[in-house]
Amino acid sequence: MQHKDLQIQLRDRLKQLRKRYQLTQEELARKAGLSLYYVQLLEGKKPKNPTLLVLEKIAKVYNIPVWKLIRFDK
Known about the structure:
This protein has 5 helices and no strands. Helices cover about 65% and strands about 0% of the residues. It is mostly helical. The longest helix has 18 residues, at about 5-20. The radius of gyration is 11 Å and the shape is globular. It has one domain (about 5-70): Orthogonal Bundle (434 Repressor (Amino-terminal Domain)), CATH 1.10.260.
């Protein structure tokens, strides 16, 4: 698996979770303490690589461990 593939998988996973929890990008940004622009970059066509701290903030919004954010097999 190439680096880009992981970025796309993470982008898709983040979008999937946000939609499952019925949050807008703006709501996710506010709850996670991130800027709307940053959330848009994470879900964009050329997704930004988030730090582990950012993943932790997003995972807390969903009340799940970080590893579930990066579990791509399901």
